[in-house]
Design goal:
9 helices; mainly alpha; Serine Threonine Protein Phosphatase 5, Tetratricopeptide repeat; 2 domains; single chain; 220 residues
Length: 220
């Protein structure tokens, strides 16, 4: 036997003795850790599967309810959405709230709709939901003739660089006009026209409003 072979066998024996000693001391701990890892992994995967199934079920309810509303079955569709608001998972409760609010606007219940949108603003953690709800809530408050509430709803979105600034300024301009503050209204509509990022339709609406404001000044 060569020296290398001898030392290799001795080294293997020592390793084997060390492993046996470690196993005697910590075998139960090692088994416990292994079992815990398996259980936690299984639990995590089970939780992910459960959440996925919940989201899929909520999505199916939302789509069905939306179809019912489109078919004119308002009471039945709204009832399903209300249940989704109460028991749905992920962002579906907020989507359901916004869909109910849109239906309330269709039904002419503007203040109720605005209250729904406000609930989304106050409850959702998704910035996109909050911003859309603010804009839609602002328009709903305008229709409800609640001009101060309309302005408060959209004020933070009117600053330069905000993606919904044009709609926010339109709401602010209409609220000012309805409240009799022609100067403020004129400034808001001018800011829309002068903004290169504003689309054609909102610029056209702003031009119409500026014409109405000019006519009002001439007749005052």
């Amino acid at each position: 036997m060569s020296d290398d072979s001898f030392f290799r066998e001795v080294d293997e024996e020592l390793r084997s003795d060390r492993m046996q000693e470690i196993w005697k001391r910590y075998g139960k701990v090692i088994i416990g850790i292994a079992v815990a890892v398996v259980v936690l992994t299984a639990a995590y995967r089970g939780y992910i599967y459960y959440k996925t199934q919940q989201a899929q079920a909520a999505g199916d309810v939302f789509i069905t309810a939306s179809h019912l509303l489109e078919e004119g079955k308002s009471e039945e569709g709204t009832k399903m959405l209300e249940e989704l608001v109460a028991t749905g998972s992920d962002q579906y409760p907020f989507l359901a709230d916004m869909r109910i609010a849109a239906q309330l606007v269709r039904d002419g219940k503007f203040e109720e709709a605005a209250t729904r949108y406000k609930a989304v603003v106050e409850g959702s953690t998704e910035l996109q939901f909050k911003d859309v709800a603010r804009i839609r809530g602002g328009y709903a408050y305008l229709d409800a003739e609640k001009y101060d509430q309309a302005s408060a709803m959209v004020a933070t979105l009117s600053k330069t660089g905000e993606p919904y600034r044009h709609n926010a300024r339109e709401v602010l301009g209409l609220a000012a006009w309805k409240s009799g503050d022609m100067k403020a209204a004129e400034d808001f509509f001018l800011s829309i026209i002068e903004d290169e990022g504003a689309n054609t339709s909102i610029k056209q609406r702003s031009e119409i409003m500026l014409d109405l404001i000019a006519a009002a000044k001439e007749n005052s």
